[in-house]
Amino acid sequence: MSTENTITTAAADVAAAPNATLDELVGTTTNTAILPEPDAHAYDEIATGDADPLILGGHKFTSRFILGSGRYDLNLIKATIENAGTQIVTMALRRCRTTENNLLDYIPKGITMLPNTSGARNAEEAVRIARLAREVCQTDFVKVEIEHEAKYLLPDNEETIKATEKLAKEGFVVMPYMFPDPIAAKRLEDAGAACVMPLGSLIGSNMGLRMRDFIEIIIANAHVPVIIDAGIGRPSQACDAMEMGADAVMAYTAIASAGNIPLMARAFKNAIEAGREAYLSGLGKVTEDHAVPSSPTNEADYIG
Length: 304
Fold this sequence. Notes:
The radius of gyration is 25 Å and the shape is globular. Strand 3, helix 3 (74-84) and strand 4 (88-92) form a beta-alpha-beta unit. The relative contact order is 0.12. The longest helix is centred in the last third of the chain and has 21 residues, at 261-281. The model is unreliable at 28-35 (pLDDT under 50). A five-stranded parallel beta sheet has the order 5-4-3-10-9. A three-stranded parallel beta sheet has the order 6-7-8. It contains eleven helices and ten strands. Helix 4 crosses helix 5 (157-169). The protein is an alpha/beta fold.
């Protein structure tokens, strides 16, 4: 129908029913779908926020943002943690000194410390570091990191599986950092991991989700939480990871290298929460070979 004919038809409708509402007039010129009344309680079962906890080793957390602490100015750590809303903070054992400038002295009360085994080159070294961290930090949580080359810092999945199995038997809540191999993820789960932590891209690179296809396979088949670790460089990338169905995101470099560190921490917090709610809401379908009218012309166009 031409624009001229549409205008003529609309004018005729107005003349025929001068007191009609806009909805009535629109209904006379288009095949507007009659949509069912929304059920006010249809989404009551979708829990978010405090009612949607992240569970790790039987411990519940309402935040799905895990924060690294590697190179911050110690005086900024408290403000960063508070703006991030995080409940878990990672740390390398070497940052816990027994004298001055002990990182633990700057962490707010109530935060769960997640010591990592950074520096370990094999399972034996990772287990030894984890045991020391348990004594120093008074926690059963440990993030297993095993890398034995310095250029790419890729995790050694085979050694990580060995360490995970041993530490899980000793009562640790083991959170293994891994290269995103779906088969290795299943083996880590079978070894007793409380979650799996596949890298999004090279650690410290801020490149984002370069390993998306493999991470999606891990998410689809995991029976433990999947936490994206390493390479997340922007809040939008963190949101994207959560929209994929990841259970949490760990970030550090993107925040530590920001111009305003506490503000960037808050941006990540908001992005992770938005991504989680988008995932729970059910994302709309994507169409690539045709357009879909934004104003529905029939019920099928509206509900897909």
